[in-house]
């Protein structure tokens, strides 16, 4: 793809005018531009459309070129990239797996000089042009193998960042770091010879203990969720570090950023109570930590049951998750189901409950939505209960 052809005003206007078009209908039409294939135009339209919510800066900026849709799907969102950038500082950073350059763009706001490394020449050229369009002047782009670059250039960096490619040669998803490219565990000695600080992004599906088994000198692990969906794990490595590991759960919402932090190795003890005045449901990032007793201790809340992962208090607190006012607590049985649940419109959640949400809705002909929130769970007496709530 000849990238410069796409920067003409006519081509950019065509892309903009067809963002809401039916792509399957125009796919068989002839390209209106002599030296541009219709398939390449469709790639630009489809990828730009995909970027609207995830990458609003790129979407709104003139003369931005877009890669294939898969690259858009795999790249960090701007919100996650901005959080990532808050973890680094200094004069220099090298991104070993630059991709579409979203992370580098945000790193450049915290770091004086950034090097973007990318194996694919077309993508590297596209990113370089985009940085110009975005008005960024402190990012250099290198096309080629970043590990070879590190080997051949023995300079020191304040930070090394890497987001290993999580698909093998058969294009199957992989979840162990040693199965990704580059193989970070295998090349840790090289990385630490070039920087004291390494930041690694991994799949949210990577088991934390498995990651710890492959890495060393881990100082912190950040579990990053966006709108209550865990998007990535960030591993902060510091050369020679052997101390306690901070486990940080972050949930970025439209309103604020919820942060919960606890030492990974710290053992905590929960208190248990029956439902009080308020109910709390941890966000997805906290659930990924598995530190449910630490939540009880950190927020000074009582748990409903060792396996329910719901919390309660007499007074309303600021919590990293959803907060509800408890209206009533009902036993779960046929009589309550028949008299209260049948045809009821409510938002339903289950926690430590033997029946799935879909089965509950089907059994009692319940409708979804409304202002009422029902939690089907088990209390400390091992009784099945329904906690009827409204938003706090």
Low-confidence runs of at least 5 consecutive residues: none
Could you say which overall geometry the principal axes of the C-alpha atoms support? globular
Major sheet details? 9 strands, mixed
Number of helices: 15
Helicity level: 25-40%
Strand percent estimate = 25-35%
Structure description:
Helix content is 30%, strand content 28%. The protein is globular and about 70 Å long. A nine-stranded mixed sheet has the order 3-2-1-4-5-7-6-8-9, sandwiched between helices. It has helices at 9-17, 23-26, 38-54, 56-60, 69-74, 78-85, 102-107, 121-133, 146-152, 188-194, 208-214, 284-289, 292-299, 334-341, 357-364, and strands at residues 90-95, 111-118, 139-143, 159-162, 197-202, 218-226, 229-238, 246-252, 257-263, 271-272, 278-282, 302-303, 311-313, 321-331, 345-350, 367-378, 384-391. The protein has 15 helices and 17 strands. The chain is an alpha/beta fold.
In short:
The protein has helices at 9-17, 23-26, 38-54, 56-60, 69-74, 78-85, 102-107, 121-133, 146-152, 188-194, 208-214, 284-289, 292-299, 334-341, 357-364, and strands at residues 90-95, 111-118, 139-143, 159-162, 197-202, 218-226, 229-238, 246-252, 257-263, 271-272, 278-282, 302-303, 311-313, 321-331, 345-350, 367-378, 384-391.
